[in-house]
Amino acid sequence: MKRILDCQGSDFKNMSRQELLDAIAGSEGRTVMCETIGAIMPMLGDITNAEFAAAMGADILLLNLFDVQNPHIQGLPKTQPENVIRKLKELTGRPIGINLEPVEQVLSSEDPNENMWAMTGGRKATLENAKKAVAMGVNLILLTGNPGIGVTNEAIEQTLRLYKEAFGDKLILAAGKMHASGILTEGAQNIITRNDVAAFATAGADIVLLPAPGTVPGITVEYIRDLVDYAHSLGCLTITAIGTSQEGADVSTIRQLALMCKMTGTDIHHLGDAGYGGMSLPENIQAYSVAIRGIRHTYRRMAGSVNR
Questions:
Q1: Which pLDDT value is given to residue 71?
Q2: Which of 90, 65, 64 minimizes the C-alpha distance to 79?
Q3: pLDDT digits over 95-135, tens only?
Q4: Least C-beta-crowded within 10 Å: which of 4, 5, 23, 142?
Q5: The predicted structure's pLDDT at residue 182
Q6: C-alpha span between 208 and 305 (Å, rounded)
Q7: 3-class secondary-structure state, position 89
Q8: 3-state DSSP call for residue 99?
Q9: In whole angstroms, what is the distance from residue 27 CA to residue 120 CA?
Q10: Which residue positions in the chain have pLDDT lower than 50?
């Protein structure tokens, strides 16, 4: 088994679901996941945000606001819609995940001129959309909710059961929320509880997503450490997620968040898509990576050719 720290593009290309999970677990809390938005102008204009995040040290790329019914990533060379995920894998040499949102009634405005998170049909966590994502070649689906959308933990659990039955071992299933997503009764420590972790694990989650300590009111290292330990006891890996725009904070804050997440025992460190907009600040991706795994592993990930 290779650790994700030692993997190159050819390794990721041929990995099974279980091999990727094992590679993450074997890296002992040194896996970086970066969330990017392809629906808006990239930070570098003609280079996708996902490529930029990969170049700064991301091991896994997570696409937010990706509409499987209208697949488009700005900055990507001209590509047939059904091949955009495969093209992005080719250019980055990284595993690719997408967010899908199990929402029954959208709580926020659905006018894209008023709300950048406005829901579209291809982002909803339906079985049809998940099948499209799998056909496109995604490695991971994360069931979660964007700001104000209105995704409940109960809806996440129900969708997990549906997806696990439909896809079995074809892809990695992750689940959880990094903020309340507009559900006020699921704010602070109620964003995710031990009961939620147990429900997600039973429903088929391979990975449970938790808010990073210091990113949501009331979320401490001790609280998340307990949930990480519990998820591990149930056979799940964990993601600690920065989804509160602090991926756009100063570097010293990012380093502090990184070390707090490391103290929880988490397996995957997630940085969100809201630096200036569309991805974390690039210097924060590098600083976070250096904080949790040092210069050698950071520069190795940054320098390795996708053709290796």
A1: 96
A2: 90
A3: 999 999 998 766 555 666 656 667 889 999 999 999 999 99
A4: 5
A5: 77
A6: 31
A7: helix
A8: strand
A9: 36
A10: none
Structure token pair of residue 85: 């995920």
d(CA 62, CA 58): 10
State which H helix or E strand residue 163 sits in. helix 153-167
Question: Phi/psi at 105 (nearest 5 deg)?
Answer: -135, 115
The angle that helices 194-203 and 153-167 make with each other, rounded to 10 degrees, is: 20
Q: Quote the tokens at residue 146.
A: 């964007």
Chain centre to alpha carbon of residue 104: 22
Nearest to 160 by CA among 117, 197, 188: 197
CATH 3.20.20.140 is right for the domain spanning 4-303: no
What does the alpha-carbon distance between residue 202 and residue 53 come to, in Å, rounded to a whole number? 33
pLDDT at 147: 85
Q: What are phi and psi of 82, to 5 degrees?
A: -70, -10
Containing H/E element for 223?
A: helix 221-233
Instruction: Evaluate whether 59 touches 33 at the Cβ level (below 8 Å).
Output: yes
